[in-house]
Predict the structure.
Amino acid sequence: MSHHKTILPAASGAGAQATTLGVMGGGQLGRMFVQAAQRLGYFTAVLDPDVASPAGLVSHVHVQTDYLDEQGLAQMLQRCAAVTTEFENVPAGALYTLGAHLPTAPGADSVAICQNRAAEKLHFRRCGVACAPHAVIETAEQLARVDDALLPGILKTMRLGYDGKGQMRVRTRDELAAAWGELGDTPCVLEKLLPLAFEVSVILARAANEDVVLLPVQRNLHREGVLAVTEVPAPGVSQTLAAQAGEAAARIAAGLNYIGVLCVEFFVLEDGTLVANEMAPRPHNSGHYSLDACDVSQFELQVRCMTGLPLTVPRLHSPAVMLNLLGDLWFDAQGRERTPPWAEVLALPGAHLHLYGKSGARHGRKMGHLTVTAATFEAARTVALEAAALLGLPAF
Ligand code: ATP
Ligand code: MG
């Protein structure tokens, strides 16, 4: 399906004339995509099985079926002028079906590679981008043959991992065997545990005409495998390192013939080397700050990519620090439910609160984020630390 025809929002938003953009998946990324699309005058359709999905709640249309449901996909085909995905675990098969008839950004082939850690690493290497030494473990023989040099390591399921789920740290061969069993003897990748100085990510948007624009490099702090803090401009990242990361990400996207927003996560090792960790074929948690700190957000860039509208280089107009707000904040030290002190947080200058409309707060569940913008990075960081203290989050 060609992407070269521009899909403009209809002049009148009413009923039949409306131009509808579709998104597979109804999580917070879908919600922020829907909001960006609506701001530009598009109607939206979200496909997600959950009756109360964050994106479904704010979309003009919510198709409430499984991702592979024929009738659900038929409804998306009938209503939408173009489709995107917000969730890399949407079965690639659903995107192949949609892509046969509609512009889909990103394409199913790109998503399929991102869904498989081995294929992803192979792609990095093909593009001349370093990744962690690793071994594929699909059989007991492969487990037995693993090179000792990969220990201590992290065993990660080949598919369906996110937020540190589906991975275990292992120090010895015995621990490795036990971990493989615990993960269900499913196909895995064992990665060598690398000495990280810190982590960064690059978010880019690539159009059908091959134009590429980059968000500034972000520095990310993870806690328990989940993103906790994003800082921009990235402290400790030289112009050389930023350029190297940007070029690597652009090569990775070009090698996929990618259309849409792509995030590449990198490790910066203690010796300064840049190593690609993984990529996400969609807007990314580490780019949420762009809503408040850039003149074009990662979500608007996704809209522009899928509709063939021009890309402009995002300008960071304010330094920013983003704090992820996980479900843990909805409980006090005794485990009783509470409402976090929003009024006190919002009394801080430059605090932008985003809540995703999820009802059940649970340990580790992404409920929202807070971006603090300020005239200088130091000021943003100081206020973000005050917000963290009010919320009971650790300092960083
Ligand atoms: P998400 O999709 O939410 O980013 P994920 O579950 O796919 O996460 P990874 O990005 O693979 O998980 O790993 C989560 C975190 O664990 C990384 O951001 C990093 O902090 C740490 N980590 C992962 N692999 C390695 C490694 N090889 N060496 C050192 N640390 C690692
Ligand atoms: Mg990750």
Q: What stands out?
A: Residues 265, 277-278 surround magnesium ion (ligand 2) (CB under 6 Å). The domain at 194-317 is CATH 3.30.470.20 (D-amino Acid Aminotransferase; Chain A, domain 1). The first strand starts at residue 20 and ends at 24.
